[in-house]
Fold this protein.
Amino acid sequence: MKNSLTAVIYLEPDQVSLRIIELPKGRVINDVRSGALALGDGKIANYAQNMGTIVNNLDGFKQQLKDYQAYNTP
């Protein structure tokens, strides 16, 4: 099997993360994390308040995927 890169994006209550992974080895090639997102009361995610920041991070992640040529794998 040819090595290929794939990516996983995590939306967590306090940050957005991207991991680019080499398959089939499962080796992490790049791990990118956003800055801290503002939490709501009781440390609960406030995605509505952070939507602009989340979208901005996703746009940056799209560029990382393009730079690394990471694609969906079947």
Notes: The first helix runs from residue 47 to 68.
